[in-house]
Each structure stands twice: as structure tokens, then as C-alpha cells.
Amino acid sequence: MSRYGAGFDMVNTGDAQACGVWVGNSPDYSIHEVASHALSMALNLTRHLSFYDRDVRTRKWHYLSPGVLQQPSKMTVGVLGLGRIGKRFAHLARETFGRVIACDPHLMPYDFPPYVERVAFDGLLAQSDLISLHKPLNDETRNILGAGAFAKMKKGAYLVNTVRGGIVDVDAAHAALEGGRLGGLALDVLPNEPPGIGHPLVRHPRTMLTPHAAFFSRDAEIELRLKAAQNIISFAKTGKPDYVVVHGERT
């Protein structure tokens, strides 16, 4: 089978392996789209753009209405997951923010770009003024941003999620917003999509939500369709897809 997308958390890869079924995906499309979407969300949060917009629409006209702003060049951005998109995000973020740190225990130290400092997960939480998530959803990462993680973050830090909704415990995120531990939250993905209009994160004044759109551009969608189809064509010709998630058996 060829997964129409990069993530494959919705595929039972264990059963596929046991049954000898090849599984492919399209892991290298829309890299710049997702990275730039995450950076846009980061800039929006750190400059309070959405918050200003909401305040102006309710006749609040003051540069301090959503709170005090930090100078971006003095902020530390943390990247959780330094794969293709995480690295592109880090490359973009280094031009705006003063320091970029990252946690990815599955990478060797030499895989970290020279402008990215390698830290452990707890160090990422404690040092980051903003964290952008770029890890796949699996048993290791499900709800990795939960109550315990939020308690270790800097007070007033920001969080951006453009990967999978299940990585963030949204109830714990809401509690962190209410308690002031999170200064703002930007989500392109949620555990259940779309959320109900009464969902507390939809109604919260310190959130920014987009409709699972980070992957999208006209060019990226064309590239995705071509690569998903090419996996099938390559399997028919060679016995395996171009991008292998599960090694199967050709019968």
C-alpha cells in the first residue's frame, strides 16, 4: 500500500509486516510548506498578532493589550524532532531568533547543524521561549507534551504543533494556558478534527488554530499525488515502493 502523506500512524505496520505487505509513504513533500507554516505561527505568537487582532475587533486599541513582548533576537527556540522539516524550521528560525536548540535522541551529534545546540528533552522544556514540534506520532511521542512537560516549561512560553494532534494532551495544554504556564498555543492539528465550536481551545483568547493546512500548497499537493502514485508504479516494476515504511514480500 502507498500512504497518501508522510505520516503513517494510522497504518497498522505490525500487521502489515506480519502479513508480508509492503507499505510506502511520501516523506519528503511539503517540507518548506510545513516549516514556513510553523515559523509563521511562531512569529504570530511571539509578536501577538492574532491577539492584537482579536483585541482591536473588541475595541481594545493599545500595544500592551495582550501583554508584554520579548525581543525575538533574545529568545530561544526549541525544536522537538530534527528530521527534514525540523531542520528546515531551524534553518529559517535562526535568522530571526537569538538561539536555536533541538532535541532528537534518534540523531547522532554530527547530524545536528552547527547553528543548532543539542539538548535533552528536559533541557528543551526548561530553556525554550517557544517550542515547535516536528516528531511523528507513535507510542514514544503520544501525549509527550502533557501536564508533566508543561510544568517544566518556562512560564509564559509558546508552543507550536504542525505535526500530529496526538502529540499534545490538549486538556493539559488548556490547563497550562489557563494557569499562565503557556503564553500562547498555535495548533494546525488536533486529536479530533474539526473541533467543536464549543471546544475550550477554539474559544480561548491565547490560541491560534489553522485547519490542518500546514502541508498545503498547490505545488505540494501535486507532488504528493505523484509520489504516492509512483510508489505503486515502482512496486509493480521492481517489487518495492520508492519510499519504504514496511518491508513486505512480493508474491
Write the layout of secondary structure elements.
Elements: H1 13-18, E1 23-24, H2 31-47, H3 49-57, E2 76-80, H4 84-93, E3 99-103, E4 117-118, H5 121-127, E5 130-133, H6 147-152, E6 157-161, H7 170-178, E7 182-187, H8 200-203, E8 207-209, H9 218-238, E9 244-246
Parallel strand pairs: 2-3, 2-5, 3-4, 5-6, 6-7, 7-8
Antiparallel strand pairs: 1-9
Helix pairs in contact: 2-4
**Tally of separate helices:** 9
Share of residues in helices: 25-40%
Strand ordering within the main sheet? 4-3-2-5-6-7-8
Which term fits the overall shape?
Answer: globular
Class inferred from helices and paired strands: alpha/beta
Strand percentage: 5-15%
For this entry, what is the oligomeric state of its chains? Answer: single chain
SSE arrangement, N to C: HEHHEHEEHEHEHEHEHE
Relevant terms:
9 strands; single chain; 251 residues; 35% helix; globular; alpha/beta
What does this structure look like?
With 251 residues, the chain is α/β, with parallel strands linked by helices. It is built from 9 helices and 9 strands. The protein has helices at residues 13-18, 31-47, 49-57, 84-93, 121-127, 147-152, 170-178, 200-203, 218-238, and strands at residues 23-24, 76-80, 99-103, 117-118, 130-133, 157-161, 182-187, 207-209, 244-246. A 7-stranded parallel beta sheet has the order 4-3-2-5-6-7-8, sandwiched between helices. It has a two-stranded antiparallel sheet with strand order 1-9. Helix 6 (147-152) links the parallel strand 5 (130-133) and strand 6 (157-161). The protein is globular. It starts with 12 loop residues before the first helix and ends in a 5-residue tail after the last strand. The model has no long low-confidence stretch (mean pLDDT 93).
